What does this fold into?
Amino acid sequence: MHDFANAFILLSNYVLIPSITYGSQLAIGALGITLVFSILRFANFAHGDTMAFGTMVAIFCTWGVQALGLSLGPLPVALITLPVAIAVTIALVLGIDKIIYQFYRNKKVEPIILVMASVGVMFMMNGIVRILIGTGDVSFADGARFIIRAREFREMTGLDEGLALRTTQVITVVVAGVVMAALFWFLQKTRTGKSMRAFSDNEDLALLSGIKPERVVQITWIIAATLATIAGVLYGLDKGFRPFTYFQLLLPMFAAAILGGIGQPIGAVVGGFVIAFSEVALTYAYRRVFEYLGPDGFEVEGLAQLIETEYKFAISFIILVIVLLVRPTGIFKGRVL
Amino acid sequence: MSSSTRSSQASTTLVHQPWFLFMVMAALLAFTGFAQSWLFALTIVQLCMISSIMALGVNVQWGYAGLFNAGTMGFAALGGLAAVLIAADPVPEAWSVGGAGIGLSALVIGGTIAAVILVRAKLGGLAGFLSTAVILIVGYLLFTAVFGPATSAIESVDASQTGYLGGMGLPILLSWLVGGLLAAGAAWLIGKVAIGLRSDYLAIATLGIAEIILAVIKNEDWLSRGVKNVTSLPRPVPYEIDLQTSPAFVEFAQNWNVDPVALASITVKLAFIALFAVVLIVLVYLSEKALYSPWGRMMRAIRDQPDAASAMGKDVKSRHLQVFILGSAICGIAGAMLVTLDGQFTPGSYLPLRFTFLIWVMVIVGGSGNNMGSVLGGFLIWFVWVQSESAGFALMDALSGLFADDSPMRGRLIEAAPHLRPVLMGLILILALRFAPKGLIPER
It folds into this structure.
């Protein structure tokens, strides 16, 4: 029993909690991608760098607040600078839409042209973020680092394994829960949300019933920018900010959106958690878990790790490939592409 | 097609004449030669040619067929890997300690796949699923049992110098062909999955495969030495030092009254350029032949009217797969050429910006669907890319002059200079897509 509890804590500490946290971050990111996809009908390659941009603004504001000598006690300052970052990112994204995407929308070009334009936007944002904040690691999570420390947990329970729960992990899950609830309420219950869903479902019919397309597009960008900034800040708080990692998040986020069914918000959430859980669970070394669960004195040779950590992108890719082969519409029957 | 009449009208103006644009390009390079240095200009030309070949590959996919390959980087890296596998010296000791293990691992993988295929064909339903799962688990366990010890044995053979299986010690020129084949194989695998779905999916899938190819090359040290790099690959042309010490060459240089050292560098660069020119000319010739053959007309028909082409009995999916493989193979050839030129394989240097995105800018700016356009785009954009590096530093240096000597802004500005390039390239792409979507030399 004792061994079993130890194994469970070990798994919670290194697999369960990290994948729930990472899954929440991916889910919010994938929600943005899937919304843009369902309304504007293209895969937005700039989403990862929009996340990086929003996070950068939040970091600058955080530094400003810290310079004033203010703090939020146990919570990171980034939580109050988040709205500012969201506002700046919304302004930027709306500006980009006005200058770049609107032209193609009016011309009704092939979606792939929009994808390419978004690649151009991605590299410009990528460069701008690096010019402004540099390429190095930035850690901006202040406040209390832990809610439960591993040592305290061990003393409290008398187990050999400690459970560490970081503040940023709890914040991620709480914020993600609130954001998703708000988004689903908005899409299901409000008039604007319903008009968005109608537009996504059948553009022509939505136009006939008097929905203004430009307004729907603007609201989509506002939501996408908000989600991107929140996802970016949560990821940055949790794992530290590095511009390059945000580009690498693109693949897992796309995989999550496609796995869930592209254009399906609930699918993006499920997809995000599935991808995150697979990534963490497949790259974790289970040696000690097996040793706890096996008979006394049982030893495992090697790490008992299924896939090396370096190949974690490969996991989202393989999931993507399997989805494309087996069920291209995704779990929740998204748009058939 | 209505757009073709418009483009033929446009091409009557001077700025759309290919010969005029190539003259401008030559003038730019000549100016670089006079103003900066001829060696520098020749270095640019070498990479312009390789870039042009990569752009040709992307153009075959995008221009002929409308396929968006966001993983050029991966195919170029496979080409580079081919250069290592073909030309590096073999490491017999590594082969003797781990060769059998690697061979056995390959057999296990092959056997597992064959068993799965067999089982799936014979058994359906739950029995099929369960036996597939069992085969996969057994295969995986066997594979790790064989593969792990073999790789660590190989990697511990003189780790600072080799620590990998090495190549075959064959002439490096052969790797240009093999690089193309390797890239074609990878393209076949990924194309099988992603082609036939909407174009965005291919972009996402190729983005992924490129990252994975790089991850494999960086981490499988037994194969490619990973981030420890493979250096001093043999050259297909003479070394500068051999020329400088050759009496005949020195005498020749003195007869012409030039410095033998400088002449040696220029000779080597020109020799590379001659080799690259052969490949470039052959590929352009073949691409042109293909584009204006019935096959090329079919490809463009499929691109513009997939439904109509399909109704005419054209197999859209397999044609797309074919053209995707061809284009990727060309990128693989360019990747092998690049490593040949560098004389070393450095997996860390493969960045999506440089190897995927830049090539796209070349194709769009040059004129998608036009092979000469891709060649011009390759030259022009590489030239801008190289020159913008020093220009970026000069700009930031000038800007930092506005600040006091001890201001931290100075360092920040200089640090930021390299990141001006992605901004510039993003801007060029967006402007080209918006204002000149047909490119400098539009499709005929």
User: Anything to note?
Assistant: Strands of chain A lie at 146-148, 165-166. Chain A touches chain B through 48 residues (CB under 8 Å). Chain A has a mean pLDDT of 90.
